[in-house]
Predict the structure.
Amino acid sequence: MSGKVLVTPHPSMKNSAPNHLGKMQRNDPCWCGSGKKYKKCHLASDKQRLGGSKEPATQLDRMERSSEYIEGMRESCRLAADTLKMVGENIRADITTDTINTWVHEYTLDHGAIPATLNYKGYPKSTCTSLNSVICHGIPDDTIVKDGDIINVDITCNLNGYFGDTSKTFLVGECSPDAKKITAVAEECLKRGIQAATPNGKMGDIGAAIQAYAHSMGCSVVEKFVGHGIGKQFHENPQVPHFGRRGTGVRLTPGMFFTIEPMINLGDKDLYILEDNWTAVTIDGKLSAQFEHTIFLTESGVEVLT
């Protein structure tokens, strides 16, 4: 499940900006990696959060992780990945999205974990099912999955106090060329984002790689939702924008656990939120696809946990 909405925050998705040492200048690139100037991006919200007295710099404190913590994250992420694999083996036309929710709910409980989305800030289900023009946070219900649909299923489990988060967009039956294209582009965007995540690199490197490929394929990148840090909390710092400029943003410090989860649209990048206050839909009704992994940044590179 994606993190903070950058432009028009949903109250359930608010994550505070990282606590940094030092200060940023108003005209510096924003720490979030968006490529915007700090004054045009997070300056106002950071001042409000910090009482107007401080501004964040561009580097998070180094993160030391115990072997117990690392193994706890690996186990939780392994379960999330197994749950998603189970869904992929069973998903088909003529089932409801609520059926998928039941599979996820029961599988998670049967393996000693808790579905992390259930009752999270009022979210009513154990997974997110986002069909066709739904970008993210689709709520399972009696909607029937049809031949030719694409559907993203987003899994987050809480196993022994550690959170694992992953998602995949599935092609159901015989899909259109556009459906195949947006799904393939979104999957490649995730791969390129992971490849751009290097120890002591910058957060903007990830977003720049994703954005460059999506745009080269005539697609757009959703900017209002981002990836997020994860660990013993569902949503932690840092924020992980899927757009931005290379060499900007938070330094990628070994010990970080975070998600990369680009949402890629076939048409316009903009969206609106339905009356349920969760479901995000493309502004033009065109298709959207998303893939997500939780990763662990080590001294030598990236470990994909899901």
Q: What stands out?
A: The longest strand covers residues 150-159. Confidence is low (pLDDT under 50) at residues 5-22, 49-57. The domain at 29-55+65-304 is CATH 3.90.230.10 (Creatine Amidinohydrolase). The chain is about 25% helix and 20% strand.
